[in-house]
Structures
1.
Amino acid sequence: MSDALLKIENLTRYFDVSKPWLNRMLEREEKQFLTAVADVSFEIKRGETFALVGESGSGKSTIAKMVVGLIGASEGTITFDGHNMTGTAGAEMRDLRRRFQMIFQDPFASLNPRWRVGDIIAEPIHTFGLLKGAQVTNRVGELLDTVGLSAKDAEKFPHEFSGGQRQRIAIARALSSKPEFIVCDEPTSALDVSVQAQILNLMKDLQDEMGLTYLFISHDLSVVRHMANRIGVLYLGSLVEVADGKKLFSEPQHPYTRMLLDAVPDLALSGRRRKPVEGEIPNPINPPSGCAFHPRCPLVMPRCKVDPPHRVETPTGYAACFALEKQPA
Amino acid sequence: MNRLGRMWDSDIAWSFRHSPVAVVAAAMALIIILAAVFAPWIAPYNPFDPSSLNLMDGFTPPGEPNAFTGNTYLMGTDNQGRDIFSTILYGARISLFVGFAAVIFAMVLGIGLGLLAGWRGGWVDSLLMRVADVQLSFPSILIALLIFGVARGFIPPSMREEVAIWVLIVSIGLSDWVQYARVVRGAAMVEKSKEYVQAARVIGVHPARIVLRHILPNVMGPVLVIATIGLALAIIAEATLSFLGVGVPPTQPSLGTLIRIGQQYLFSGEWWILLFPSIALLLLALSVNLLGDWLRDALNPRLR
Amino acid sequence: MTDALLSVRNLRVEFPTRRGVLTAIDDVSFDIMPGEVLGVVGESGAGKSLTGAAIIGLLEPPGRIAGGEILLKGQRIDNLGAEAMRRIRGKRIGMVFQDPLTSLNPLYTVAQQLIETIRTHADISEAEARKRAVALLDRVGIPAAKRRIDDYPHHFSGGMRQRVVIALALCAEPELVIADEPTTALDVSVQSQIIDLIKEICAERGAAVMLITHDMGVIAETADRVAVLYSGRMAEIGPVTQVITAPEHPYTVGLMGSIPTLTQDHARLVAIPGAMPRLNAIPQGCPFNPRCEHAFDRCFAERPEPLRRGDRRRVACWLYDEVSTVEQEKANV
């Protein structure tokens, strides 16, 4: 057994996006399904930050929600530290839940506006029955201190804080059950850049101190580059490439990764002339046949339009692209 | 700043202070409610004590001495010689009690079913909302009449007088829960999709706790608005039922009963028996309604 | 400078509230030259969108222009009536907003909206206007423009819709286009297409652009000059290359340091401590003083004026005032 903390195999999720039954009958339409996540597999090692990047409709948030159990998987398995999460329930599941937490995108929505900060942070402690009485108050104070706030802030309500401070509170809540693994769903995309840097620094510090493992979801390539040890690139629900951190940026393999990197505005003013990006993301209800990227791909071959590509090893990780397959001699 | 100071400084208190209509309406409602609650101490007579009544005092016009006894009554007397002012105070007591109790009943039922529908979704939601739709397609007074009639059929005649008021409360409450359920369901669905609820679900908080501790406090704003306007409607519904003679028994006259009694004498010239209870009902319903309107605007800045 | 297309002079925008008047924009001045792209950056609440709204007369009440003036080719436009302002919007100043759906009427086809706008500003026949509209859609990169022009806005994808909005903003051939976060709602791959399009098409038509965004990367690729706003005040303004490669205001320095890049490695990002003050709690002196590591006495007492640094650059920071430099050295001794 490897040291993988989280193992995802052939994870797939459909959503029923059909019209109501009566409309379908009258308009003689079939049921419609949207494949948000298609056959995704990856592993996250203990202590690393694995990032998933992708544009809207890539399925990155759906994967995050499946990992923490907010929505079920249509197919495939999620294994957390050797426990298959789909088959676990009751006390065993409760124990597993304590060990993973989630940080959400919008710090204005992720804290109950009618609760005091102290109660918000203590909710996991109470739910898992970790501490009692004055110990809870002390622990909340410690946690607030850890995330750079003051113990006195426990008495306040969320609206008294700025966006960055709220995200710190959300992080304190996530930490309060002493988890090993945290799913971070776009944790800084609602924040301003100067505050984003504070939160990213805090997350890195916490990881170093507590040995946390992160699944980091983002659409921002430069943030991902800064945070992640390994990166998975999603396109229309499929994992097109997985590569070691910085190498994804220096040696992108999949044509979509290359296109994505070309699209990022260049702050360095290097004057590099970007290759213009072609086309837009197709409708996920009716995705292209074969490789979903083929209508926009500069390397498209006849085969790409028919078969979905398989995973191939690359110098930096693996990717799913026919153009990267070694031609048989 | 202490709690009271914070309340005084809050946006809603500020909006209240700067709305003359709200202040006047609140003052009026408060006066009527206090007068009703303390009726036994305020009212000059006890209109329900037969021993204090003198039939000779009947039909005394307001402010004039009675032709036989020489007694003067502020708002005159009715056919049995009861002081109208006192009966209004006691009547308002009954009206307000029925109104509040009916609203609380409707609120509890509506919030419960609304939370259930909003949280569970799916067929539970469809079923509850279709029932609500059906009920909404009838006028609520008709529903209340129907429930009242059915309930009376089940209750032995000997107990009817005693339980009449409770039957009335349940009838009005049952005819009114739909509004609460619909609003709560909608608000619960919005809150349910918010990230703080997802965060609680990730932690594994029990669903009942999520609904009661997280969602419920956040959907109470609009509920309070409906409850205030609903109170005015419930008072009017009670008056309507009592006016139709199916409400509280004549031994415990509410404002509606007084109006029913009064309208019999309208054409024989004893106008005060009808007029004063009607004005009392109007002021009560109007002030509560105005308060509800103000509260709705104050809680929903988009309407301004 | 009299040849500026748009001059904003000492603009002040206030919001009267029950707890007193909040000053959202205070003493902001800048020029936009014909054909120039001016980037306006700042964090949320810095007043960048309000500046744009003030220029086109679309401040949401109770917000109001409380001081200063706005000149379009030397003519004051901040005190015009609603009708006169409406004629300037669309005809002389085009607008592109963050959410393309708010700029398009969902009840009319793209053709109806484009033709109507073209004809209100130019006296031409319907057929002629339609021809122009198709050409314009073709120019902004809508495939099969001739056929798609009769579609409704909801038939278009987000990126395509923003292209339609750009066509709509440009159809009266305005001298200035104000683009408020035009790419924020779009995906990265579409974002670069839209930026390129705005840049090219405005250059082609000689329209100046005021590009409001929070994204320094977008500014770097698009703008000629950039204005950095902080707490409703101008922190720094100057040519893009200078401001990005050698920022002078401590806020800009911190801002540039806090952005992770695709090329450099940092163990930690340079974060500015704290957050931008709320409008009701802007400190005395320089609004950045609580977060500034260089702050000295004068910063807490006096508000820094924009100081001229070279030909085209202004920085509102006492560090660059000769008098204060002397004082600071004295203080350090």
2.
Amino acid sequence: MERILEVKDLHVSFHTYAGEVQAVRGVNFHVNKGEAVAIVGESGCGKSVTSQTIMKLIPMPPGEIKKGQILFQGDDLVKKSNKEMESIRGKDIGMIFQDPMTSLNPTMTIGNQIMEGLIKHQNMSKAAAKTRAVELLEIVGIPQPDRRVNQYPHEFSGGMRQRAMIAISLACSPKLLIADEPTTALDVTIQAQILDLMKDLQKKMGTSIILITHDLGVVAEMCDRVVVMYAGKVIEEGTVDEIFYNPQHPYTKGLLRSVPRLDLDRDEPLTPIFGTPPDLLRPPVGCGFTARCENAMRVCQEIDPELNDVNGPSHRAACWLQHPLAQGRS
Amino acid sequence: MFRYLGKRILFMAISLFLIVTSTFFLMHAIPGGPFTSEKKVPEEIKKALEAKYGLDKPLFEQYTDYLVDVIQWDLGPSFTEKSSTVNDMINRGFPVSAHLGLQAIAIAVFGGITLGVIAALKHNKWQDYTGMIIAVLGLSVPSFILATFYQYVFSIELGWFPIAKWESFEYTVLPSLALAASPLAFIARLTRSNMIEVLGQDYIKTAKSKGLSSFVITVKHAIRNALLPVITYLGPLIANVLTGSFVIERIFGIPGLGREFVLSISNRDYTVIMGTTVFYSILLVVLVLLVDLAYTFVDPRIKLAGGGKE
């Protein structure tokens, strides 16, 4: 299968007054053409930084890409200049942000905000871009698009704004869409509508999607594969079925145990993962999850495990429990 | 819209009435009168003078008389400048002060916004520090020092501009620059802090994710959102600057209106005090209204007539 995006050994740090925060510490994953990949993990695990680094949207300084490659259709984005990135952003890679209330410019009409990218990347005339903007609003399910196109964001509801945001990000039919927690700021019924819309558009347009979320329900509904991140690293990846039915890393297992399920006994309490993630100003030498892991061994504190195949090449986990010597312990 | 304007104009009339009333009675509460400083005026002559100007009537009657005159835009004769009325003084001085003021405002607005935007874009770099040093100097150096400094450097040493008087365009350059310094500095600081805030907003990230260049992002997305507080400041600033500056007009020998404000008070020149105050107040309330109207063009979220929800 053709890989549209491949992130290799990506390290991103932020230089702050307190010191260097190693937000992303060697992330590897890939996205195939037409596939939806979820990146899950708790707040501060580096998932948003990873996604914004792909677009090179992190402020530099204080941010810095220390090491690694981001291969988009074979080209390394890390090496691209800002000017070169401008012709990729919006055209080849689109992005949807978390909060539709703040991610639209309040003093510009929705239409103009959609048209900007079209005029820049597709050399459209103003009139043609406007026609296309109306079409896009229609596609994302906004009623009366020819009237709505001239309205300002404050005249839209939250769900409508996120639909408009999707129209903006899909305006130039990008090959990859990065959705950074697109449903977190919306209420549940609207969440479902937005997810349906994204799924529908993915099918129609064949766009690959990276979905960043901490909502495992969203993952199950939308995605083909899952990448689980913890403390700036990928600790497990696999297909949705592999991750949900056969999780290998204790952190993934913990995540799944903390989600309510319809098929389990209702009297059984949910089990949270106790403790907090490590301080990335001074990241641990060994596995980042050691301090919170029930199965921690001495080796976990000293040597960081690598991602290894688990029953087949699509499912990989970074945990010493996968080591042949540890078999039978968990 | 028309209902809103009507309401606003009614409120403007009420505030002007209150200003006139309080100034009138405060002014008369100050000891002394317009003829106190004249030497040895015989009692009969003083009586005659007071009768001529109506100062012998009860205070309340003087007040109602003045109100009637003011509504007809008759501001009365000046007590100290016997040959001219207050209307004459304003007609003579205001065009000069307004000319100087408009030039100063143009410099302050363009210079201030440019400086502020550059400082914000180059946040924490040398351009930012330089811009803000200029701004702090502009705010903290008093205008009379700046004005004499300009006269020394540009007139005496370099000979580029005339040192004083008010005749042709060259004469207006130095006083305009001197008058613009402090509002320019203020606008620069205001613009910078608002720009920095706006540049950190999510919609700027959205604009970047569309692949727009930083120039387009600054001009189309950032500046407009950063300018609202600057517009708020512009109303009072324009009223203030247009009616002249005592210090600058004195130093450059400019026959403007600023002088009248200050001198009339020490002279107890009742009609001029009232006239200049009324004139300034009218200008101020009109400009505040214009600023409120200008908001609606800059920010679509603001609606007039109480129709807006936000």
3.
Amino acid sequence: MQKLSDSLTNMAVVLTLIAVITGGILAYVNHMTEEPIANVEKQALEEGIKSVMNDPDVVVAQTIDTTMTLPGTDKESAFTIYSINNAEGEKAGVAVSSTTTAFGGDLQVLVGFDNEDNILGYSILKTTETPGLGAKADKWFQKGEKGDIIGKNPNDEAFKVSKDGGEIDAITASTITSRAFLLAVKRGYLAYKTACEPKGPVVSDTTGATKSTPEKETQEKDIKTPKSK
Amino acid sequence: MNKYFEYITNGLIKENPTFVLLLGMCPTLATTSSAINGLSMGLATCFVLICANLVVSLIKNITPEKVHIPVYIAVIATFVTVLQLILKAYLPEIDKALGLFIPLIVVNCIILGRAEAFACKNNALASICDGIGIGLGFTFALTALGLLREFFGAGTAFGLTIYPENYASLLFILPPGAFITLGFLIAAVNKVRGVSEQ
Amino acid sequence: MEYVIMFIAAIFVNNVVLSRFLGICPFLGVSKKVSTATGMGMAVTFVLTIATIVTFAIQKCLLDPYGLGYLQTISFILVIASLVQMLEIILKKVSPSLYGALGVFLPLITTNCCVLGVAIDVIMKDYTLLQGIVYAIGTAIGFALALIVFAAIREQMELVNIPKGVRGVAIVMITAGLLSLAFMGFSGVDNGLNAVFAN
């Protein structure tokens, strides 16, 4: 077969053809994988919530997406707060997803609290940390491990790494990751308190997840952080 | 048949893309913090490389010379996106571990390099063999590097504990460890190659 | 303040080459002389900033509204490739002196993964346009800094008697490792600054 010459028509035809074919292939593959991807994400979240609530039968009663500026920073951060009911439809606590910057990027954790604000469990949702380091945090702070945080209240003075005068052992050689992790947990707790507490306990709604975005409310409540410096 | 077999072994040892040609260094260093990560990255690249080589060799005659680079890039990017979507849907753990470096396979110089240097001059079967050889060579290099870093940095191999973690040196898992381990690995490979050539 | 910290973090703390491993090929290839390293650094800064703005516009104005997110990789890389080509033509016409300084490096930039990497990163991290630009410039300066420092070290190494076994690429890698180790000293600086300015 003769190689096509470099005429303008040839080039235009070939480029258009390539664009159409690749676009078509990608649209098809995207269509095929759209559902599995959504399922995977949904499942990951459900499993995460079950594991951090330490109970396989919990149901998400309410989902609140909110952004707020917490004391100690001048940046707005996004939080997602899931109000959780147990199998009998009673409030079992909340799970909060919270993000901080750690050693090499964002660290996103999902923390479960019981009704007394004690930590039930946690799970690392996303980390751009050096693999191996961030991965360690997955186990390190679990029950019975060296940095056990289960059952503790993040509002305690001692909820810090031992280097900073707290009572939690940091991951060996990863103080920054450990600090970031504890900060993420604590910020999740603060966000949950700021967003939910004044309204009293969330009314249980077993019909499914309702979405609300109380952005305005949380901003007004957040008078503790003066914006001006 | 011998010729095709040679294409495969060529990529594995004599023209190993990492140790000898020094191509595709970014994923080599970034994703080898554990053996399993290195292996997945290698196989992901291998898939794109074989597919891209095949398509490029099939369309080599209908591609006008002046626009061959954009055409090849479009072909490679298509396969990378297909791979990315499939991983997201069926192997989310791997997608999570490799993150940004999946879309970055597009700019891995090995793939465009092989399309330019080999696939656009050879037939489909030879191009596939070349893709397999170079791809496996890359996978081999990444797995070896990942294994070494994991072994020295965490005391494990493919996630299995070999010796207590307290004796491991975290440095090997951190970025500097990637450069230094690869440096010594290249020195070792050079030594072996030097001996076998004599 | 947030932007300043982000800028510093992009240059030093998360240095694009030494801790995130983007753009290793030019880092190893174009770092034999300080003068060429400077040229390459400037060219990358130039292209990276413009590419980030253009890809950001494409993502927000074309891909997002029409649900074409899956075309991200292919459209970004083609846009970057044509952008580089266009810049080359424009520079040649408008400013021959700048073209003389940067021209030879421009074709190499298409396959520099830090351009595509940063463009995708800006979208993945959900930055605003201004944040994206600050991040892009910071990253590019970080790249240039690493490249120039490394070139200076390599110039010195010419004069040193290197053990035979590690000559060539091996010693270059090990040197890069030591430089990366030095940059690890900056880790946590951004969080520290954040804490200082927040109180």
4.
Amino acid sequence: MKPMYRLPSAARQLVQSFTGTIRLSLILFLALALASWGFILVDANSGFPDLFMAETWSSAAGFLGKLAGVGEEGTPAFLQGERWMETGILASKTLAMSILAIVFAGTGALLTFLPAARNVAMGELSPHRRATPGWVLLHYFLRGTFILTRGVPELVWAMLIIIFLSPGILPGAVALGLHNYGILGKLSAEVVEDTDPRPAPSQRACGAGGLQVMGYGIIPQVLPQFITYLLYRWEVVIRTTIVVGFVSAGGLGMDFRLSMSFFHYSDIALLLAWYLLLVIGIDMLCAGLRKLIRE
Amino acid sequence: MARPRATFLEGRRLVSLALLAALVWSIWQVQWDQPIIHGGGIGAAADLFRALVTPELSPSFLATVLKASWHTVAYAFGGITLAVGAGFSLGVIASGVLARSSTGRWSMIVGTRGLLALMRAIHELVWAWLFVVAIGLSPMAAILALAIPYSGILGRIYSEILQDVPEEPLSALRTAGASEWQVLLYGRLPIALPDMLSYTFYRLECAIRAAAVMSFVGVAGLGFQIQISLDDLRFSEVWTLLFALVGLILLIDLWSTWVRRSLVR
């Protein structure tokens, strides 16, 4: 048993098992990674050399200490019950923002994912069982909205929306909703495209119309997966609400930004504590809901 | 025999009602006493949308866009390469496949899983802000901030994929006298690699978007340029930058979809 001398051959075998597209992509990935690191390290201000300087790490340790309330005048924020209550209200606003966002995204996706699926718009399951210009146009339009809303990050949506919506949790929820609408729409349309096509012809043979085929053949196959995606996105949304709050001025994000600017370190620690409580709470809730769906 | 009738507040219905109540409470949380669109908001929105048809296309600005795009790509790759390395190491430990005794395995799984959960609980931009304060404003702060939550996600997924490898080929290796390390290297990894690659490529798309946003804290990239143009109300430039960002993400998305399709085959 001398494994080590066989390692190179094992690695070579592994590489050789990838052919064509995959090998090309791996080479491209490595090339881009190397070029990126080269570019980053050549930059004199990359901050990379700083990582090997003692000052950097003592300042980082100092920051952690300040978060924990070291050297702060008066009682640190996270030891005052009153401050917990005040920031708790912000946390509840953040929670409300995430719920509104996921409802916006879910409703939007539910209304559009069927025509966005290729097989519903212009294939096997379409009303005329062939491509008609109206449906094809609708299909590509919806796919386009998915790409646009998904491609623009939540924070950038928030920066655009805050130009005309009043600050608060609503613009944040709209921004998060738009981005997640694109993601949920794309994912659920792909689920429809991957559904089993066999029930449809037999349902039609029994006299079912287009809507009935959808309602009894497609939706039941898709819905559990859709809810799973919705819960998964909610977990992501609650993590992102604080970031969107930086600009939309709703919930924990705004106070986080202000505390950062005013160097109120123990406040930052308190806000992070609420943030982690929300994230962990939602993760556990979603795990429970997923279990309920599977039963 | 008749099925026992479900009571009104049976499990799922109760959950649905609770979720509905949560929605009503959330709507109530919105400040409805202030106008939804603030004063001058309509005019600003009109300006924003008017600029959509006249994106800024002057060569000098396009050069800026190209440079910002490259910064975003470079930082995304910097972050994801670190995340693949750290995520893989942590994922192997968190899968518990290297432990022989069951207590050893469980302490490994629970400990590393907790660490991975903490890493991904905090959004990359929050990490970025913390890093900027802790080690100073530099591309490295953004790259590390990206790498931490992505290591958390990749580590968890890698560990699950490694655990889900079918047992039969592995026991064949063990019967032949292979150690757990050898089982990992010659059994689990070759079987798990396509799934791991597929997920990594999916995350690459997310990393590009995250790297663009990362510049919100002040690191060069598309997000930084968007912020500058928005602050100066130069909406034509904003649209050019947004098109560049969406185009870039679309490109990576097509690439990763292509890779994943070929991996499934």
